[in-house]
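Table 4 source record.
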Amino acid sequence: MMRSLFSGVSGLKTHQTRMDVIGNNIANVNTTAYKSSSMVFGELMSQTTQSASGPNATTGTGGINARQIGLGVKTGAINTNITTQGASQSTGNPFDIMINGDAFFVVNNGSENFFTRDGSFYVDGAGNLAMTSNGYNVMGWLVDEETMTIKQDNVSALRIMSAANMTYPPEATSKAYVSGIIDKNNTDVTSAAGKAINVNFYDNLGYSYTARLVFKQSTNVNQYSVELEKILDSTGEEIDITDVALGGKNATQETNRTLALDTSVYEWNGNTLQLKSDGSEVLKLSDIFDQATGEVHAGDAAVANGTEDKLATLAKAYGYEGMEDEFLSLQKYIVPKQTDGFAAGSYSVQQLFVNQLNTQEPSFANLGEVTWENMNSFTTNARTFDGIIVNYDPDNGPFMGIGDATSTVTTAILNLSVLGGNFSDIEIDFSESSMYDNSGACTIAATSGDKDGLGMGRKLGEMSGIAIQQNGMIYASYDNGMTKLLGQIAVAEFPNASGLEKQGDNLYSATLNSGEFDGIGVDITAGGGKMSTGMLEMSNVDLSAEFTEMITTQRGFQANSRIITVSDTLLEELTNLKR
């Protein structure tokens, strides 16, 4: 009688335990990445009233089975359904990560590692990737600074938003290329000013600049000079380019330019340029040129004479406004008469003006029969400049080379390094340009970097976004177009994941039966898994199954309670026998 009472009690206790498991499952139906548990019953023990006996050959009797009375039930096992994937929930948060597969995130509380399927992460105040629920750091592998690849060593906290990662260093532009069509009938390339194109570049500190290159047609229309006109900084201010050139200095270009004084406004009177309207003095050649050296005045003399403004006026009077250097560099080839006493050769406009000032030969007096009218209009056939000559095939139009007609050189160096340590030379490739009839329009332009986008340079980049790939690699993107590998989220895999021990907060710890964590972890893709960002794994609790289990548990509990009440009734009848 007492045995049935105790069996009923054990049944009540065990079914209550099962109800506790079901209740916990239902309570966690919306817990991120929760893994449901299930309980199995086990027989408690049996009391043997008679042991089993074997057959007796002597007496001819058969064997008898053991007589055993069970003494109740116990909790056989509580299993965690840890390998069943929960459904996915989209959150849109880039730091929410869902594991597809059997792996676990590795997190650390500062002293020991734990494991979780809860991928609800955020970036804390120190820049570490951490769990939103308890702030435990997400562990992974860092980047080798030398190779910039992942170094799979012992896991450490992923500090993805450190001060070093918030910016991407600038880089000086080292390459550029010129592409497009240059049309020999374009009015810009045939003009004195030429066809201008811009090359945008960066220095080593990330400051931006614009170099203006100018194409000018030679007498041979298949050849074009290309020279650096000016460099502007990011504020639009010109910088000193005295020692800067494209390709080299003192190149010569054949050109047929007629210099004509604007005689409607100006006229010459000896070495003095004056206004035609009233004869007032505009400038004297001595205000511009040093008679002794033949050079343009510099320093205090230039200030005293107003050299800069007067040279600009002289160039403007001949149609070369803003192009004073080119105006003075234009050359004329002069063949002397037998009585002139000077050698045949090319003489620059500057030399002719200086000779005119010093009454030396050759001067404008040798350019015709009337001395001063020769200064009103004359033709030049060459000019010197700092730059290169670009050649195109006269029959088919493609680029041929830089330099002489037989050269196959395709690139020229813009020697910016002479400006200082923060500048780098730029190698400019002209091989993508060509000369075709394009209805007089030029499409020629310059692009930073080579044809593969290398060497284009960049400014300092500010972090603009974070992306986590399916293999757990974390990349930062920057507003200068660059990306940087910051680290990789490592995962842990166990031979018996069901053997992990729950620690609360969706955390597990390793046990002897789960298998140990080696401290390094694995790449999630090695086991066929992946990570999905902007998503979380939901609980794998099946409510329909839980409610069904609840019904059977309730019935079992009721049945066990009946055992107790019936046994109690029997005991009551037994005690009533004395009456």
